Amino acid sequence: MRTSNEMLELIIGIAKDDSRVRAVYMNGSRTNPNAPKDIFQDYDIVYVVSEVKSIVSEDNWIDRFGKLLMLQEPEKNIKALGGEIDLNKNYGYLMLFTDGNRLDLHIQTEDYMLTTYKTDSLTIPLLDKDSCLPAIPPSNDKDYWTRNPTKIQYFSVCNDFWWCMQNVAKGIWREELPYAKQMFELVIRPGLDQMVSWWIGMQHDFQVSPGKMGKYFENFLPNKYWSMYRHTYSGDDYEKNWDAVFIACELFRLLAQDVAHKLTFDYIQDDDRNMMNYLRRVRELSKDAEGIF
Questions:
Q1: Helix (H, G, I), strand (E, B), or coil: what is residue 255?
Q2: Domain layout of the chain by residue ranges
Q3: Which fold is adopted by the domain 4-143?
Q4: Which residues of 200-216 are buried (b: 16+ CB within 10 A; e: fewer)?
Q5: How far apart are CA 159 and CA 140, in angstroms?
Q6: Are strands 43-49 and 102-109 parallel, antiparallel or unpaired?
Q7: How many whole angstroms separate alpha carbon 16 and alpha carbon 10?
Q8: CA 71 from chain center: how many Å?
Q9: What is the pTM of this model?
Q10: CA-CA distances (angstroms) from residue 69 to 66, 80, 107, 144?
Q11: Phi first, then psi: what are they for 175, rounded to 5°?
């Protein structure tokens, strides 16, 4: 597997040798001083070019980066599906190589770059032939810190969590596994994860990032809470799905009450209590029940 130095030398070297490439910059975890380093980190690279079309139309242009295991071209796919997109301003190659390295390379015109360059605090300039890259502060993860919620944001997450839990309950009772699992993972979990993120942010004056999709939750949560969070994941057994539901409810309640106390918000205790009674009742219902209560 090529080392990070080898990959960066290759990326910058190709840019230096191609007169169409005027600047290079990098985003992503490799620019984050707080992100752990490992062999799976990809290279999020942008080439700022004089024009995109000739590069995209050049057969085998990307072969110089290495032998491909798989390739995805997002903008090409969007265009093929009928999406409105200008392939002459921005184009991406997501490349996984046979040595395990991954390179996400975007090619952008200077005009396009100027609309996006300062929008990501995790940015490091690597090459600038024409001094076209605007000045930016040192790379940091500030743009990814958990933001302090407003009262209505907090209420909305609490309200959605408890309201939508009834859908998970009926899915489990009906033994409609795909419905129950997707309601939990796609509707309930985002609210739980948001509350976890707010709780973590609250402990650090909202100056930390819990990582994309909560990947650093374990680093920030006390062992008790992390153990509870882990047990909100379950397989295909319906009783274990019920267990996960009740653990999620308990964890959400603990964190939400802490957040409410710290930020002087009102926690929807009545909704919590009423829905818990409902969930317990549905779990106890026989399959031939003719009513819920």
A1: helix
A2: 4-143, 145-284
A3: Beta Polymerase; domain 2 (3.30.460)
A4: bbbeeeeebbbbeebeb
A5: 34
A6: parallel
A7: 10
A8: 21
A9: 0.89
A10: 9, 23, 21, 31
A11: 60, 40
Q: How confident is the prediction along the chain (293 residues), in pLDDT tens digits per residue? A: 999 999 999 999 999 999 999 999 999 999 998 888 999 999 999 999 999 999 999 888 999 999 999 999 999 899 889 888 888 899 999 999 999 999 999 999 999 999 999 999 999 999 999 999 999 999 999 999 999 999 999 999 999 999 999 999 999 999 999 999 999 999 999 999 999 999 999 999 999 999 999 999 999 999 999 999 999 999 999 999 999 999 999 999 999 999 999 999 999 999 999 999 999 999 999 988 888 98
d(CA 22, CA 107) in angstroms, rounded, equals 11
Give the residue carrying structure tokens 């490799």.
30
For residue 98, how many C-alpha atoms fall within 13 Å in the half-sphere facing its CB?
4
Residues 6+ apart with CB under 8 A from 76: 87, 91
Tokens standing for residue 4: 């990070």
Q: Which residue has the tokens 């374990």?
A: 218
Q: Are strands 102-109 and 21-27 parallel, antiparallel or unpaired?
A: unpaired
Structure tokens at 13: 């070297």
CA distance 181 to 187: 10
* DSSP letter, residue 205: T
Name the architecture of domain 145-284: Up-down Bundle (1.20)
Same fold, 4-143 and 145-284: no
Please list the alpha-helical segments (H only) found in the chain: 4-17, 53-56, 74-80, 110-116, 151-173, 177-182, 189-203, 217-220, 223-230, 238-263, 269-284
Strand partners, 43: 103
Question: From CA 123, how far away is CA 137, in angstroms rounded?
Answer: 9
Phi, psi dihedrals of residue 261, rounded to the nearest 5°: -65, -45
SS3 call for 177? helix
**Which two three-digit tokens encode residue 246?**
């009740």
